[in-house]
Input
Amino acid sequence: NAGVTQTPKFRVLKTGQSMTLLCAQDMNHEYMYWYRQDPGMGLRLIHYSVGEGTTAKGEVPDGYNVSRLKKQNFLLGLESAAPSQTSVYFCASSYSGLRLYNEQFFGPGTRLTVL
Amino acid sequence: KNQVEQSPQSLIILEGKNCTLQCNYTVSPFSNLRWYKQDTGRGPVSLTIMTFSENTKSNGRYTATLDADTKQSSLHITASQLSDSASYICVVYGGATNKLIFGTGTLLAVQP
Output
């Protein structure tokens, strides 16, 4: 099993450009999440999904959109990138959100730089 | 406000030595607490989960403790190895809306 994979691993954008980050999991998990991780700050939740076809806002959703058309995939889009979106982005998945089953499995991350 | 605070921010120890990382939280109601290990350039990986009724749990050389009364948890690493160099993140699940609240992590460096 590959677990959680993310594409691409690195990306450099210019301000105003758009891009999509792809996350895929092969564990048949219901829940999927997108986080950003910045120096000196904990992981912050951007958006999440509790099942195929569903999405919900997290702590820092502004400037991002997501889609979950297939259970195994969760896409994060930046419509007009800004330097403040320079960060490392992690995708994660979990079997459910229930307290004993909410262990999150993380992907390797995408390092995004916006110039 | 539901918060998770970790200390120290960073720590340097010599290989073979023991160390203890701290996590204090104000999350209420409390459901569970996890410790994650994040190697440089990788995603976090769960080490252990602590529920309300558990005081101590071990995973190899890692031992987590929980004091739900004082809202404190610790992660003790015994006989450290170079491969223990990583960031250790405390995550608490709970609050009125059942959310995961992440600490900022402790960066551990084990030197030979």
About this structure: Chain B has a mean pLDDT of 94. The two ends of chain B are 41 Å apart (CA to CA). Chain B touches chain A through 20 residues (CB under 8 Å).
